[in-house]
């Protein structure tokens, strides 16, 4: 739930400084960029500097996209360097506010869990799940972490499975079951004095986390540019020469899906979609000293958006909404023939 920040072979303070500079150049992306910068500062051990970035966001005049997420990250960070009382107060405030985004719930529950507050963590995971998972419907992908975290904490507490734990089992796609992954004995074995036991468990964890770590170490995605219908209409009206690139919005959407499937079939990894806006595109053209009517600028614009953290991974995860913005599940929309 935190911004992706590869932990190996990276100068975290330098990366945080780069992201802060980029945030100054692109104010519309400042929230996402500064959250990534704060994550790098946490990884570098400079937690007070990370808190300063969280405070900078929360005190900004600009309206935040995810204020509860920023507060949750701040609380988690504060607790890690001795500010438990303030962290608890923020966590209580988030729970009372009942945000409709799963990420703050997961972060504060994991903060409680990491400080051995297992009962409170289980209650927090459950509150988030009850609020955000529709009864009788497939849980949205973003809520899976609530179910997995709840399963883990209940396993640590020795509580028997309920319906939500069984649902978490069905959603878990790894060959290693959640019961085995969340077995308290595996956690305790990491503190074993027996070198053979410790080495075996570390090897096991490495195998399970290998794919995830590889994904975090990748650069930004190979991204395809998507224009919402109103933006595409404005773009073509302002720059008629681009009509050859975009005969219709329906064809534009179909081309995106076809292009991504072709790239995937050819073995290209880490694919994504970036969504353009006309003002952003015009500003980018001005920064490049080029006319927005130049179609050669379009792939450069897509690459720049991806580098600024604007890409959404393709294909969407199971149960997630379609990338096109229709509001339908991907499997029922552009993923129908996948």
Explain the overall architecture.
The structure is a single chain. This protein has 338 residues and is mostly helical. The protein has two domains: 12-217, Serine Threonine Protein Phosphatase 5, Tetratricopeptide repeat; 222-332, no CATH class. Helix content is 60%, strand content 4%. A three-stranded mixed beta sheet has the order 1-2-3, sandwiched between helices. Helix 8 (144-157) crosses helix 9. It is globular. The two termini are 27 Å apart.
Protein traits:
2 domains, 338 residues, Serine Threonine Protein Phosphatase 5, Tetratricopeptide repeat, 16 helices, three-stranded mixed β-sheet, mainly alpha, 3 strands
Q: Any idea of the CATH class of the largest domain?
A: Mainly Alpha
In DSSP terms (H or I, runs of 4 or more residues), the helix count works out at 16
Low-pLDDT residue intervals, each spanning 5 or more residues: 211-218
- In CATH terms, the superfamily of the largest domain is Tetratricopeptide repeat domain
Shape verdict: globular
